[in-house]
Design brief:
Helices cover 20% and strands 32% of the residues. The protein is an alpha+beta fold. The strands form seven sheets. Strands 1, 7, 8, 9, 10, 12, 13, 15, 16, 19 and 20 form an eleven-stranded antiparallel β-sheet that branches. Strands 2, 3, 4, 5, 6, 11, 14, 17 and 18 form a nine-stranded antiparallel β-sheet that branches. It is globular, with a radius of gyration of 26 Å.
Amino acid sequence: MNRLPIIKYFRLAIACTLSCLLVVATAKAQPGQLSIPFGKNNKIVFDLTAGIYTVHFGGKVYFNNAYVTAGGTETIDSRAIHSWTYSVTTSGIGFGKGKLYTLTCDNRTMQLMFHVFPDKTYFVAEMRVKGACNYMSPLTTDQVQLHENGDNRALFVPFDNDMWVRYDAKPVSKADFTGSEVLAVYNNDHYKGLVMGSLEHTTWKSGIRFKGNDNNQDGSVALYAGFTSTVITHDSLPHGTVQPVDGYCRSPRMLIGLFSDWRDGMEQYAAMNVQAEPRVINTWKKGVPMGWNSWGALQTKLNADNAGKIIDYFYDSCKAFRTSNKTLYIDLDSYWDNMTSGGIDGETSQLADFVKHCKAKGFKPGIYWAPFVDWGKYARKVEGTDVDYTATWVRQNGKVVDVDGGRAMDPTHPATRKRLVHYFERFKQLGFEMVKIDFLVHGAFEADSFFDTKVTTGMQAFSSGMQLLDSVVNGKMLLYAAISPNIATARYVHMRRIACDAFSAIDNTEYTLNSTGYGWWQGKIYDFIDGDHVVFGHESPGCNRARLASALVTGTLITGDDYASYGPWKQAAATLLQNQYLLQLAHSGKAFRPLLADTGNKGVNVLVQQSGGYRYLAVFNFSNQDTVFSIPANKTGIVSGTAALELFSGKTSVLNGSVKVPATDVLIFRTK
């Protein structure tokens, strides 16, 4: 390609200088390549005439011929642009001392930015384009190379935890999916792997399209903002159009890195999310939450009598089951309105009595609500307003949005917002100290339009509604999210359920351990993640141990049996919920990470954690047969012959590279 005319060059140089005040170097476009170093022996090589780039880690090419695309006002593809300039400035995004390389095409319709750091094995990419957009990809390539033999896996991550969705660690050769927000492609034999994903979630839903090749070592990937799906995000519309600011539409910042242990990479990704979008909710400082929730067993049968008896049961008969600061959260789930006449604005004396009784016993009262859902789905006045519910309903292609039994409400509509304020003010007036908020994903749907015309995407609407919620709570309550976006919710709540409803059966435990085993890293963006209500019911002792352990390895412990009535669950609780070894683990509140991550869409069997000076090993058997699990010392760090305490039995045994677990049971070992 010929050099740019000198006049055109100076115009471009001046434009770049004005657009970036911290410029430390500006070079004119020239045939050839720009090499951008980062970390140790890593680099991005951008072809200034072809509009493509390669990414090298450790001297090897992992992403080859990657390009940049955007769609909206017009479709733009970097490969069609044959003249680029660049500038180098100081990166100011808060991930350490680094440089920002900004590549600008000749007509300034597109910019690609790379934030690189001298001591990191990753970089952060983002892009800007002129005009409005609903699709932006800073990295698309048909040539992802893993350079590893053996058990290579690609991890599908869902958008939320609704409808019993599962994570899926697929063999690369069989992987063909679009996941949400983040992707890990790793070698299960020695953990080395790529991690890439969006670090910002207040405007865009992001997706990662991955398809592996038959050789199980390479494939194609597209990391992009603007993802919707009828199944994964429950949207029947394309992603909303993001409007430009100062003439440009900006993508979210996106992490792209190679890690010697992909689990470290996922935890690094989680930590960077918190840096990129700091928490709105106050940080929790009152100890790891523990308690009881009525949806586990009582469900629609909840009333003032059995709620009061459950408070008494924990006070009188299960005295050791307490948080580290000697309390419990006693949470009334859906159907708490059985204890009212006329709903939250009617006769609420039974709720007030529940709160009083709870606090008298030293416990914290909790309640339940879904702020962006209309369960009635008929015309009537919105509580606290003179507006009809029909005005608040989200519509896609002119049709109301009913998902999982609930009708979505526009988080930006004044009536939705007044209703939210109204309910939370009543909860605070009644004295509740915890609210389980549910079906939050209904606040994140795309829409034909939103009441607030400045809001054009589902995530913008979600952010608007959740920030209002936090402002009303004002740090006075524990906020626990149930069904909700996996990552975007973290800014606004203290604690989040890792999966959908799980009860007592072993397959419920297996389902929970699918989400915990592959989503444990979310414990780095929330104060706590939770394994849902632990129900013992009529299950075998082994099943009950496994169900309890699934909560312990997730991070918090919420029970769910009907302790107002007699049954075998009371004996199980007396033994399991008062085991001091287990309670010590529960008080740590830390999620375990997977030892082996090769179970596809099934639960992870072996998980590990270090906490309080101890090393923990949890081994689950979901099958109906006794099973021997291999526990390689090079992966656990536990030397063969090490003495270990098994927490359920209290017995000490020697670990020698394998563990035999009885059918539908679990063993948790603790070593120094």
